[in-house]
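Predict structure. Chain length: 341.
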Amino acid sequence: MGQDWTNARLLAHSGDAYMKTGLAVYIFAITEDMKDARAFSSLDGDMLIIPQQGALDIQTELGNLLVRQNEIAVIPRGIRHRVTLPTGQARGYICELFQGHFRLPELGPIGSCSLANVRDFQIPVAAFDGTLQNGRACGNNRQWQIVSRFGGRLFSCTQGHTPFDVAAWNGTYYPYKYDLARFCVLGSALYDHPDPSLFTVLTAPSYREPGTGVVDFAIIPPRWNVMENTYWLPYYHRNTMTEFSGPIISNQDESCKWNQGLEFQPYGASVASAMACHGASNGEHIKAGDQATEPQKVGTEGFTIFLLETECPLSISDWAIQEFQVDGQTSGILHKTRPSL
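Prediction complete.
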């Protein structure tokens, strides 16, 4: 059976959408366009869309966004949209933020041109779904089905006109997209491994105290390592933040082995709960200790690791626990089986 944008599955969550606290993480696997005259919106929170593979053509009330591999998009709470597939099947992740909004992190002493820059975010222009008749804008009106997520559940209603009837708009509440290849990576030039906060693209501060966040979205992209006589990998460690991480295929060449499904497990992702020990494997540790530390370009394999770091404890959904079973045992590594959406 075909799957469209409305069939995303809840993977993990924290807090309460009704109380506007916390967040949720969904995964999606789309095999077909949304039906004609059908639109979707989340009333629970802002949606950070992270494609793992494939492209999404998103028609929103405020204009259109073409979101390709290695790009992200944010659709604010309540903005109606319709998703189609310009290049075939697509899959990926959604971080739904119940609390506040995504924003750029405070740069402090880092400066004005580091990490993600305002000028590189792309915002749609109004795209009216209709025609001009005798100098008047007439919408492409027919019976539309509006599917909405509210409290984690899907509801639908019908209306007799297109939701994409905005001829012009202004304001600060709008969808946008960002090409992750434009991210200006920072790193250590002398010793030690830089904290993951240096890789933060977007953040949602909790404002409980300085430095806290409902969620930080970070990436580990291609970059130069130039540290000398020091250990390059993150040390085996524990965090007060919960970490959800997974890969994004950044190489868009169809001949790339990742895009052909070779040596790549769809939905490969992991969760490290707060204060849970995690880090590189023993084999990776030995390799890192033996390698030369002259400058090297790293992260060029054709995929980028992203992280969702949250101060909220993530609870794995019942569906995810049921799907990610190996020989009757629940696995902490979520890439053991592929979910059947």
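Summary: DSSP finds two helices and 25 strands in the chain.
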